[in-house]
Amino acid sequence: IKLDGYRTQIVINSPDDIRAFTKSGADWTRKYTGLVEAARELDVKNAIFEGEAVVTNAAGLPDFDALQKAVHSDPYGMILGAFDIMHLDGYDLRDIGCKARREILFGIMKPNSRIQFSEAIPGDPKAIFYLADQAGIEGIVSKRADSPYRSGPTSNWLKTKSFAVQEYELLGVEREPGKAAFALLAKPGTGKYVGSAFISLGRDMKERLWKRVQEHTGPPPEGVKKRPATQWVGPGVKLRIKHLRGEHKYIRHASLLGFGDEDQDH
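and the corresponding structure tokens:
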């Protein structure tokens, strides 16, 4: 399962020297106090392993917004779903197959810890993805069982993301010459900004959208930061938006597909 969180690397040089790093290499040891303390409880001399730092909601699903808050204010509110190990007690494990590495990783895990083993789900990827999609999970990661560990992009890992298509209300359009245009969006009937979507329409659909924007010009919504080159729109224009599934305050990886059902004939 693709957990909706922050990819994290735990480096244990010794029980008194443990560091936590983000995917980009930033040192977040102080922000991950709870995870560092959990790593200290592992029966290892030294190790380097990776996982996804997450915060779960009442349904047990990753909540990305809650994770962002926890990073700044609740360092003990996170758990780590550990999924791979590269070094252990002086041994370089990177050339060992993925399945064997994960068996080694499982062997060092502790029960009731903030660091938990991210279980694999064997079976038909299509069926697993369907179940993940129905559960509202962000997606799945498929891995070759015999693949060595390699940094950076690799064909041995395949991420399949799950997207939802929902209707949103248009707040405004942000566009500048030579740059991509974005639709600023709100949940219908709320006027509350929930993010932006890339406008990837054909010429005819774009012209229809620009016409609707001109016909529905309105003032900037309350609580939305001023944006350069933005034309604000009054209530009433509904759009169909494709975006990443998951628990988010703002929609992510969003693109505009077309008009909402009520606006198809305009």
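(Above: one complete record from the training split.) The chain has five helices and 14 strands.
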